[in-house]
# Entry
Amino acid sequence: MRISFFVINLDRSPERLGHMYEQAAQLGIELIRVPALDGKSVPPAERSVLDLPAFLRWHGKQPLPGEYGCYVSHLAALDTLANTECDAGVIFEDDIVLRTELGEVLQGLLARDDWDVVRFAHHRKVRHRPVRNLPRGRRLIRPLFGPSGSAAGYIVRQNAAARLRDALTPMRLPYDVALERGWATGLRTLDIRPDLVGFSDHSKASLTRDGQRYASMKLPTLRRWTTLVFRTNEIVRRWLAGMRS
# Structure
């Protein structure tokens, strides 16, 4: 099966792109650059993809400019994938470390049609159900609790890219949270453990937060009751989806 590889990269981050190209060359991978949107360049009133009332209700925080830029950039990557002649596309952010076993694990993943979206990296470990074994000690899994993850690296079937893009529009959550909500997008969304990509030193300097304290974006406590209701509902929906599949 044909796999295309994409990397999301800001114009002001050529060193990150260079690091990604070096790693890809060592693995025999050709990367297609997707220019990232700099969220700081978009005034709040012009954030057309953002559903601000829903974001505040569901997430309980004001969106950062970098979060908006990240979200729109991933949607652009999905659009590019949907218009590319391939069977599946891998989308990378530019602050990761590629594992040498990447290709072998992906071929094992592509051997069966039991997924639409599979994430490669996670920020926390959660309970899960195993789906099947993959090469090099990896497993395809279905998380039962969360959120667990990162959008630093993931694969999407080409015929699911447009559906995923539509399901994630408009922006109501940060992209990494929205991506894993297979019960909401209607797509078979799974994970690989242990992680298939790591985080480079570049990830320590987040361009999404860009020096801002994330905790400072929280709404006052009394305004976050809708977030508590949403997250409680998400726990139930995630668990039910994991147990039904």
In short: The chain has a mean pLDDT of 93. The first strand starts at residue 3 and ends at 9. DSSP finds eight helices and ten strands in the chain.
